[in-house]
Structures are given as structure tokens and as C-alpha cells.
Amino acid sequence: MTLPPSYFDDLYAAADDPWSMRSRWYERRKYALTTAVLPRERYPDGLEVGCSVGELTAALAPRCDRLTAWDASAAAVARAALRNPGVAVAQRSVPGDPLPEVDLLVLSEVLYYLSPADLAAVLAQVRTAVRPGGTLLAVHWRHPVADYPQTGDAVHAALRSTLDWPRVAVHEEPDLLLDCWVRAPAGDPRAASVAAGEDLW
């Protein structure tokens, strides 16, 4: 079963930053990895689903003309908005709130909260939410958490089996998985090339 908003409300009631995103080197390093693999320097419209207190949001904002950040928890939304005054932060959750069309969609540490059925519904939305030529980036913790319906490995296996877009980057290590796709026809070698975008290839 997908974790309800009340699960996260309880976490934010107990701690200002439940996952210590503001202070842990692990988190700062992960944000650096996340932004480093993005193939475009800037995106017209970006969406981050599951923004928590807005630390990754702050790293993504300079890369987007317009960035929207969603979280299911009202407390998280308030903290992320305070951290990111130039970002449109809203209380939304997937799959209940349809994904808008964007050029950059970031799904970081959020999909393993979903049941398999809800994950499949989100992946169906992803295929049309990312505009042609746009980027989808997913990154998730690999270790099992008793409360979560799925693992990061299961989530990325579902993503990899569903999407036939070219992948720009894959990063695997004991703690996390990261995948980055460009929405383009399968088999187009230039679609996943950053150099091709600058006529270097």
C-alpha cells in the first residue's frame, strides 16, 4: 500500500529535517551527483516530486527558468518554500495529482513510497509528462526500509523495464541508484550525447 500523507506529517512533526538533508555529507554528495548528470545546462520548466525540506530543490533551481516542487506533507512544503523563495512549492502527491508537461522531471527518493500499482500509474504519466527532448532523472536509496512498500532497486528495475528512451547516465553504488533518461526515439545515439547538443559530434 502507498504510504499516506499522514505518515510524512508524523515525521515532520517529530523533526524539522527528518532525514538530515541539510547536514549529511551523503545528501550533499548525492545532490552534486544528481545535478552533475543532467545533460542540459538549463531547462525551461522543471518539476521535483517529493521535495522534502527543499535542499535538492535549491540545487535544481539555478538550472531551471521555472521550477515547481511538490511534497505530500504541508510541513515539508512550508519548509521548502522558506528555503526556496523563487520556486513554486505546492502540496501535491502522485499518482493522484497528474504530472504536468515539463522539460525536467526529478523523482528523487520518492517512488519507493508507492505501491506497485501506483508506481505503474506514475510511470504511465511520465511517458507523456516529459516533453520530447526533455530529461527524467531518478535516484533512490538502495537499502530496505521496513515501512516502505518497495526498495530502490525494485523501483529502478521498473523504470528500466518501462522506459525505452536513451539513458544519459547510470550510477550505481552500495547506497544509491541513479538513472537519467532523455525522451527521444530509442536507438538514437545522438539523443544521449551532451556533445551532440553543442554540435561537437
UniProtKB/TrEMBL annotation:
One of its GO terms (molecular function) is S-adenosylmethionine-dependent methyltransferase activity. Pfam families: NodS (PF05401). InterPro entries: Methyltransf_Superfamily, SAM-dependent_MTases_sf, SAM-MeTfrase_NodS-like. One of its GO terms (biological process) is oligosaccharide biosynthetic process. PANTHER family: 23S RRNA (GUANINE(745)-N(1))-METHYLTRANSFERASE (PTHR42912:SF45), METHYLTRANSFERASE (PTHR42912). This is Nodulation protein S (NodS). It comes from Klenkia soli.
